[in-house]
Amino acid sequence: MKTVKKVFAYIIRENKLLVFKHPDHADAGIQVPAGTVEENESLENAVIREASEETGLSNFKIEKYLGNSVYHVKEKDETHDRYYFLLSCMDKKINRSEWIHGEKNELHFTEIDKRYGMIRFSFYWLDIFHARMQLNRGHSEKLNKIPQGNMIL
């Protein structure tokens, strides 16, 4: 079984978590910005890179490392070592209530992604309570580790 390192970005604003849906892939569920750690890349650099690539935002800062977990992906015969981070963002565009941004990694494109030239992500803010219940595939694993004093970044 292959093991893959993954990083997850919890970006909080006014007690709400930045989440996204795939408008063209409803079965993917609600997620947070996350992705694979590249070879020879630090976890810290990976989480900043993934947050930037997926959201289209910049000026991220790691506020806290929240821990790790192991997740088994049966359909891929993989184990994911997952590392969770709390991030703040000073990009002025973070104040939007919702937006669409896309990833242009053609390796993962489906036919519908090819039509748009990207894998589209529809971002919005979800209160922490509902995020714990609605996030897909273990994405909420470390939400309970966010310090209460850091809920508004």
Give the helices and strands, then pairings.
Elements: E1 2-13, E2 16-21, E3 34-36, H1 43-55, E4 60-73, E5 78-89, E6 98-103, H2 111-116, E7 119-127, H3 128-134
Parallel strand pairs: 1-5
Antiparallel strand pairs: 1-2, 1-3, 2-7, 4-5, 6-7
Characteristic terms for this protein:
3 helices, 153 residues, 41% strand, alpha+beta, seven-stranded mixed sheet, Nucleoside Triphosphate Pyrophosphohydrolase, single chain
Summarize the structure.
Helices cover 17% and strands 41% of the residues. With 153 residues, it is of the alpha+beta class.
Global shape: globular
Low-confidence stretches: none
Structural class: alpha+beta
Order of helices and strands: EEEHEEEHEH
Estimate percent helicity.
10-25%
CATH class: Alpha Beta
- The third-level CATH topology is Nucleoside Triphosphate Pyrophosphohydrolase
| CATH homologous superfamily (4th level) name | Nucleoside Triphosphate Pyrophosphohydrolase
The overall strand count is 7
The total of helices stands at 3
Q: Count up the domains.
A: 1
- Quote the beta fraction: 35-45%
